[in-house]
Amino acid sequence: QVRLVESGGGLVQPGGSLRLSCAASGSGIILGAMGWYRQAPGKERDLIATITRAGTTNYAESVKGRFTISRVNAKNTVYLEMNSLKPEDTAVYYCWTTGSWGQGTQVTVSS
User: Fold this and answer.
1) Which residues share a beta bridge with 81?
2) Which residues are registered as beta bridge partners of 18?
3) Which positions ≥6 away from 64 have C-beta within 8 Å?
4) Burial zone of 83 (CB within 10 Å; 0-12 exposed, 13-18 middle, 19+ buried)
5) pLDDT of residue 21
6) What is the CA radius of gyration of the chain?
7) What is the number of other CB atoms lying within 10 angstroms of the CB of residue 14?
8) Which among 96, 100, 105 has a CA at the least distance from the CA of 19?
9) Cα–Cα 20 to 30 A to 95, which of 13, 21, 68, 71?
10) Measuring CA to CA, how many Å separate 86 from each of 40, 71, 104?
11) CB within 8 A of 101, min separation 6: which ones?
12) CB neighbour list of residue 87: distance below 8 Å, 6 or more residues apart
């Protein structure tokens, strides 16, 4: 069983930046694809970015050009760099890998 713990959420003004981190732990784990989802109040949980172990990335259109996903395999950690944040980016952000979810971290974009 892989345990995922997110950090780095918070309150930021429109146009600002945040960096989310997700650390994975578990005995003898070798992580495959990882990703970030987000869920706004009253909405479904949406996939926004994925990264393979080799570093191939994919993004939802809504964040393409503003968000960057990256990982450090030696640290079992995945990151989400978020720039040019908009109020509509406000959501709980969840880290994912096959079979596991993090607990989520709140990102609020507001002036």
Assistant:
1) 19, 68
2) 82
3) none
4) middle
5) 98
6) 13
7) 13
8) 105
9) 13
10) 13, 24, 19
11) 4, 94, 95
12) 14, 109, 110
Scanning the structure block, which residue is given the tokens 């945040």? 18
C-alpha distance from residue 3 to each of 15, 77, 101 (Å)? 32, 11, 8
Cβ–Cβ under 8 Å, residues 6 and 93:
yes
d(CA 55, CA 102): 20
pLDDT-derived band of residue 1, with 50, 70 and 90 as boundaries?
confident
Q: Are 63 and 80 in contact (CB under 8 A)?
A: no
Q: Of 101, 37, 105, nearest to 67 (Cα)?
A: 37
Going by the DSSP 8-state scheme, the letter that residue 17 receives in this structure is -
Question: Distance between CA 29 and CA 16 in Å, rounded?
Answer: 35
Q: How many other C-beta atoms lie within 10 A of the C-beta of residue 31?
A: 18
Order across the sheet with 18-25: list the strands.
3-7, 18-25, 77-82, 67-72
Q: What is the pLDDT of residues 66-82, one digit of tens each?
A: 999 999 999 999 999 99
